[in-house]
Design brief:
Blueprint (H helix, E strand, L loop, with lengths): L9 E2 L2 H5 L13 E4 L2 E4 L5 H21 L3 E4 L4 E5 L3 E4 L3 E5 H6 L6 E2 L8 E5 L5 H14 L4 E6 L4 E7 L6 E7 L16 H4 L4
Parallel strand pairs: 5-8, 9-10
Antiparallel strand pairs: 1-3, 2-3, 4-7, 5-6, 7-9, 10-11, 11-12
Length: 202
């Protein structure tokens, strides 16, 4: 997601946020997330970012159905609790989770917490305002969270970066793909998709 730098953080504990022990009328923004010590604003996505995530979601849903996996694929529907130096709530552009994880998510919170199984796949479509986070911060947050695979899609630079967990689950492999190249997913090894098709290059 594209995160705006807000002049205001509304102080709140993670426990109160998770339990929704707060007055929604005191949060002035329609879109928000938890960051460090409170709630901050989340800005909207560029239309192309949304289109890229939606196209990939439809493709992955078809592949999940073909494989017969008990997985679910969503865009901007669930957030993910991560933590390195401080507590963060990330709202990935796309997330693949197991049906078991889906069943553990509360109807109100819609947060995949740290006591739930890690997502199979997390995808972020890079925005200029979140460039450093998407390419530098989030990979380490998601690795620490044991996400199976993290993909960043930068349609402006026509590159796709993939961090995939090794078979022993202790490390990650990194690959960067450029225009004209096929992107390889550990989670979907038979999927044939190129950088150009992922970034909706005409």
């Amino acid at each position: 997601m594209n995160i705006a730098v807000s002049p205001q953080t509304i102080p709140m504990s993670w426990q109160d946020y998770l339990a929704r022990n707060y007055d929604r009328t005191q949060i002035p923004w329609p879109r928000y997330r938890y960051s460090g010590t409170g709630v901050v604003e989340v800005s909207g996505e560029a239309l192309r970012n949304v289109d890229i995530a939606d196209e990939l979601r439809d493709l992955l849903r078809d592949e999940i159905k073909r494989l017969g996996h008990r997985w679910n694929c969503y865009t901007n529907s669930f957030s993910l609790e991560v933590e390195l130096s401080e507590k963060e709530e990330r709202i990935p552009d796309l997330m693949v989770i197991t049906s078991a994880t889906h069943g553990m998510i509360g109807n109100e919170s819609r947060i995949v917490t740290r006591d739930m199984p890690a997502p199979i796949l997390v995808v972020e479509v890079v925005s200029p305002s979140s460039l450093k986070e998407d390419l530098e911060t989030k990979p380490f947050e998601y690795m620490h969270r044991s996400v199976g695979e993290y993909v960043s899609i930068d349609w402006r630079k026509e590159t796709v970066q993939v961090w995939s967990r090794t078979e022993d689950g202790k490390n990650y492999n990194f690959c960067e793909y450029r225009s004209g190249e096929r992107v390889q997913f550990n989670s979907f090894p038979a999927l044939v998709i190129t950088v150009d098709s992922m970034i909706l290059k005409s």
